TrEMBL record:
Signal sequence residues: 1-18
Protein known as: CTR1_3 protein
Pfam family, one: Trypsin
A molecular-function term among this protein's GO annotations: serine-type endopeptidase activity
InterPro entries in alphabetical order: Peptidase_S1_PA, Peptidase_S1_PA_chymotrypsin, Ser/Thr_Proteases_Immune/Dev, Trypsin_dom
TM spans (from-to): none
Length: 257
């Protein structure tokens, strides 16, 4: 595979993707129900744990029982007081909510974000309809560097309040070699990275959400510190954990093309 530098890669990306480039602390509003697999994880601020208001992470529906996310989302949280909200682009209304019953962390997850993957079990079953569907997992290990990956989330507005509408953004996928140069951290073949510049990228609320490539989930948003400040964003690569996912949740949708 021929490697190209970030300046050329970004130039090619801009030529091909003029529509949704922008900071996730803004982005562009997503079409209604374009992401039927997207999950908003929320934690109750009510002492009686009867309401599900504050969004802290994202995830993706795997099947009627399980949601895929990052282990770091739940590392210091009690799953019994968290909810999964699905089937709506509007943060404050609509959709279905499910209590989280259990979290299964990857056995090797640590604070350096190694093996940053987990699955959340809902209490009961997720009801599928036109607005709520399981995601397809991308199992091919190869990615075309410079091609667009897409992320969606409830981005932060200028006043640091969560947007009430789901937003989306396209970001170019870069090689791990390029990612290592800038991150200088723990990047392996089980990661995938995106990078645009200081105007585009993940933020904290997007962690756990899917990186979409060719209609399927290529990665899980793992970390973005700091938010959109000229650093590559890092994702857990699905292909490196497919068997782990299947072992814990059973049947999932997959594609290699």
């Amino acid at each position: 595979v021929e490697m190209i530098g970030l300046p050329l890669l970004l130039s090619l990306f801009l030529q091909a993707n003029g529509g949704r480039v922008g900071r996730m602390t803004g982005g562009t509003e997503a079409p209604e129900h374009k992401y039927p697999y997207l999950v908003s994880f929320r934690q109750s601020q009510d002492p009686n744990h009867t309401e599900e208001y504050f969004h802290f992470c994202s995830g993706s529906i795997l099947n009627k029982y399980w949601i895929l996310t990052s282990a770091s989302c739940f590392a210091n949280r009690n799953p019994k007081v968290t909810w999964a909200v699905v089937g709506t682009n509007d943060f404050f209304k609509g959709g279905d909510k499910y209590k989280i019953d259990n979290i299964v962390f990857h056995e090797n997850y640590d604070k350096r974000y190694r093996d940053n993957i987990a699955v959340a079990r809902v209490a009961g079953e997720i009801e599928f309809n036109d607005n709520v569907q399981p995601i397809t997992l991308y199992t091919n290990e190869f990615t075309r560097y410079g091609a667009a990956g897409t992320i969606a989330g409830w981005s932060v507005k200028d006043n640091l309040l969560l947007s009430d509408k789901l937003h989306e953004i396209d970001l170019p996928i870069i090689s791990n070699e390029e990612c290592k140069k800038d991150r200088r951290g723990y990047i392996t073949e089980k990661h995938v990275c995106t990078y645009f510049n200081s105007t585009a990228g993940l933020c904290f609320e997007d962690i756990g959400g899917p990186l979409i490539f060719e209609g399927a989930q290529l990665g899980i948003a793992s970390y973005a510190i700091p938010c959109s400040l000229d650093w590559p964003d890092v994702y857990t690569r699905i292909s490196g954990y497919l068997q782990w996912i299947i072992d814990h949740v059973g049947t999932v949708r997959t594609t290699s093309t």
